[in-house]
Amino acid sequence: MPARTRSPKLGYALAATAATLWALNGSLARFLLNDHMPPARLAELRSLGTFVVLAAALALTRPRLLKINTKDIGRLTFFGVVGLAGVNALYFAAIARLNIGVAVTIQYLGPLLLLVWLKLVHRRALPGGLWSAAGLAAIGCFFVVRAYHPGGLDGVGVAEAFGAAATFAVYLFASEQAGHRYEPVTILVWGFGLASVFWLITQPAWSFPLHPLSSGRNLAFALYIVIGGTLVPFACMIAAVRHLPASRAAVVATLEPVVGALLAWPILNQALSPVQAVGGLVVVGAVIWVQAQRPALEAERAPAYGAARRARARVE
Fold this sequence. Notes:
Elements (H helix, E strand, L loop, with lengths): L7 H27 L4 H23 L11 H25 L2 H8 L2 H11 L7 H17 L10 H25 L4 H19 L13 H25 L5 H8 L1 H14 L5 H19 L4 H4 L6 H9 L1
Helix pairs in contact: 1-9, 1-10, 1-11, 2-3, 2-8, 2-9, 3-4, 3-7, 3-8, 4-6, 4-7, 5-7, 5-10, 6-12, 8-9, 11-12
């Protein structure tokens, strides 16, 4: 998006909205997992349901937004399969084995992984304050979710949570790259469409377990997971990185564990301890800190498609 049309305030608001909706999604998904919905099947439901709703809406209202350059299918496949299918499946698998708070804390190492990628691979001179804010947010999340009381961590679950962190970073980076060329809805419909193809090949629809959705309550939860927990927040985050570098949007998204802890009061009867409250304030402080810093756009932004190749050609 051209600099004159960017609105950092809108970008921060969109990222915070995504974090809030994702926080509720985690609690409701846990009910379905407890009722024996396999994590990979829940990820499949999330991808396929979102794709069907979004593709139908675009086909009826703005069909031109379904068009992409065929040269970009490989990149969008990577975004859909690794960034979307990967983060969904690994997150659900992690919360099935770990306390939700521990899993989310590990997943939100994603912003730090993204900064490391920009620094080491793209040789970016990133502002020191951004590193500090990302680290502070990770520390705050640690205390919000009481990760210092892991209660006997499951090794496989920890590995899945770290996988969720890596694929979350991939999702942020790849969606910002695609945003140089396409509208957010175009990126989403192709991303979730290609993720759905992956799921339907590996897990055919006719073998989908319907028994966890046999109650009206679970059907309502599944509907929220598709619309409120997937379509809307992913759209918000992809729109956010049109106004902000993905690294900054990711730091704002660390509000998710804080909001999740607050939502646990009415949903799961879990009250915040004083230590958790302090951790929440630390995360909020990190988010305010990152908003107060002027973005170094050229250093922080993901490169457009083909940018590295064009840079090499100029050098040669």
